[in-house]
Structures are given as C-alpha cells and as structure tokens.
Design a protein that fits this description.
Blueprint: E1 6-15, E2 22-32, E3 37-41, H1 48-55, E4 63-68, E5 71-72, H2 81-88, E6 89-92, H3 104-114, H4 119-132, H5 148-160, E7 166-170, H6 178-195, E8 198-202, E9 214-219, E10 222-231, E11 238-240, E12 245-249, E13 252-256, H7 259-266, H8 285-298
Parallel strand pairs: 3-8, 3-9, 6-7, 7-8
Antiparallel strand pairs: 1-2, 1-4, 4-5, 9-10, 10-11, 12-13
Helix pairs in contact: 3-4, 3-5, 5-6
Length: 305
C-alpha cells in the first residue's frame, strides 16, 4: 500500500465557546498520496482556509488529527512546528508574499539558508530552480519589476527550495489573469508529477479544475462532493471520470470527453490493448496515453476523503 503524504482524520476546528462559538471545520477526513493534486473548492466562509491552515500546522484542530508522512503533526508541541513548516511544507500564497527589498534570487535562497544550507549552496540551488522555472533573466530583479505570473513563479521556487513533501496553495490564481493563472497551475502540476510531490490547493477558480486529480467541494465546514478527474488521451481535455465516456483496454481504464474521441483512440490500438505503431494520423497518441497511464499508476488517487 502506498504511504500517504497527508492523512487528515476527522479534523474539527471550533473558534470560541458557547453560543458565540463558530464551528469552522466539521469532522473532515482527507488522504493524499505522493504526487497527487487535490483541489478544494467552496463558497466564501466554507472553511477552506481554516482547513488548509490546519494541514500546514498553522492551526491545531480542536478534535481529530493530522499526519504528515506518518507523523502526527497536530500532536507536536508548538516549539517543534516552525522547523516542520520550514522543511516539510511549501506554501504558495494569493499575494505572493515576496520580500520587497530582496531580489528574486535572494527571496528564494534565504529560505534555503533558514533551513541550514550554506549561503553559496543556497544561491546555487535557488539559481538552478529559478532557471528551470524560466526566470534565469530575472535573478537580480526586485519584486516590483516582475509581472504577476513571474512573482508567482518565484513563490513556487521558494515553496520548492527545501524539498518539501507537501505544497499548500491558498488561492494561487486570485491575482492573475485567466491565461497566466492556468499556465502557472499547469506548471505546478508538471513539477508535482515529475517530482512526486503532493499538492493541496484551495480556490474559487473553476478554470483550474483540469489540473487536479480530485476536486473536493467544501461547504459549511464539511466535504459535500468529490470529483475524480482524468485526461482524455486524444484531445487532452480534462474530464470528470464519473461522467466521462470510458473504455478498458489492456487492463487499464481510459476516459474520454466524447464517443468520437473514444472511437478515434480505439482505432489506434490493436485488439490486445497494447500500444502499437499503426494509427489514424495521430503519431503521438499512443505515447501520450502511455505517459498518462504511467503517471496515474504512480500517483493513483486515494479512495475518497
């Protein structure tokens, strides 16, 4: 059985007591596997940010428990939590939260230095990470000289610099236009899948549903609905597995946005379901499907919240 990165068990958070008390999160459970991306959506006041704060060891649950890589972090003393937050979590914020007096490189390297890495090694690691994220020409820039998308890429680099097990993102596209926001989220998905990192995102943004493996709907502090996502191997459109046209070939399920995509896909596979070299003018189709299956088998979603 795959070890869970994050395991939230019947977490409840209450603020205040008596008649004036507010029950913000009500008995929520969630299991997240390595490399899985979970998107939590819901109306304002539904408890999304409170739940994310508990997952990130910023708030302790009133009841229930939260486990990170097998450690019950909700039971740790406050004195141990800063090091856990620094080394095992990567946080991405709506407002970027970059230090205005530091350059792009310094904003990322300082987090590695706080984690105990020597200055030269921290700068080298930060430089490599920023170049990978397309910011090689911006290393010496101050945040005020960056676009919104560039600021969020710096924030992603900062979140990754200490090699965290879990990335937590709070409304990461709220200050970005739709095109840039979606590009940033697809970049985050690629990094998560390539490196096997788990990601939990809370957002109102319906446009980023396609980057998630599961979409959870939180309302009145509790999960009301769960949608498991898949990618159509023909048109690469994100589809909801529960509503998609599907077929099983070679022992693996495939999901499609339409019957047309399903028929086109079936025409590229031999009867045993294994990838072959023949097709209908779609030379990359089988490679795409194989890659999708490989990614899914290494990060198969947990069975329900």
């Amino acid at each position: 059985m795959t070890a869970l990165t994050l395991d939230v068990r019947d977490a409840t958070k209450r603020f205040g007591d008596g008649d004036t008390g507010v029950l913000a999160v009500r008995g929520v459970s969630l299991a997240v596997e390595p490399g899985e991306i979970v998107l939590i959506m819901g109306p304002s006041g539904s408890g999304k940010t409170t739940l994310l704060s508990m997952m990130g060891a910023l708030l302790k649950p009133t009841a229930g428990s939260i486990h990170l890589d097998g450690t019950e972090i909700s039971a740790l003393s406050e004195g141990r939590l800063p090091d856990i937050r620094l080394r095992q979590f990567g946080f991405i914020f709506q407002d970027f939260n970059l230090l205005s007096a530091l350059t792009v490189l310094e904003n990322v390297a300082i987090v590695a230095e706080l984690g105990g890495v020597k200055a030269r090694a921290a700068r080298d690691h930060a430089t490599a990470l920023l170049i990978e994220l397309g910011l090689g020409e911006r290393l010496g820039f101050l945040p005020e000289k960056l676009s919104g998308g560039e600021k969020q890429r710096v924030a992603i680099a900062r979140a990754l610099i200490n090699d965290p097990a879990l990335i937590l993102a709070d409304e990461p596209t709220a200050n970005l236009d739709s095109k840039i926001g979606h590009e940033i989220m697809r970049l985050l998905r690629r990094i998560a899948k390539d490196q096997g990192r788990s990601v939990v995102i809370v957002s109102h943004d319906q446009r980023i549903r396609d980057i998630a493996d599961r979409v959870m709907w939180l309302e009145d502090g509790a999960f009301k609905d769960v949608v498991t996502m898949a990618t159509d191997p023909v048109c690469e459109m994100a589809v909801e597995r529960e509503r998609a046209v599907s077929v099983e070939r070679g022992g693996e399920p495939f999901f499609f946005c339409s019957r047309g995509c399903r028929e086109e896909f079936l025409g590229t596979l031999p009867s045993d379901g294994r990838a072959g070299s023949h097709g209908h003018g779609l030379p990359g189709l089988i490679r795409t499907a194989t890659a999708l299956l490989s990614g899914r088998s290494s990060s198969r979603p947990a069975a329900g919240p």
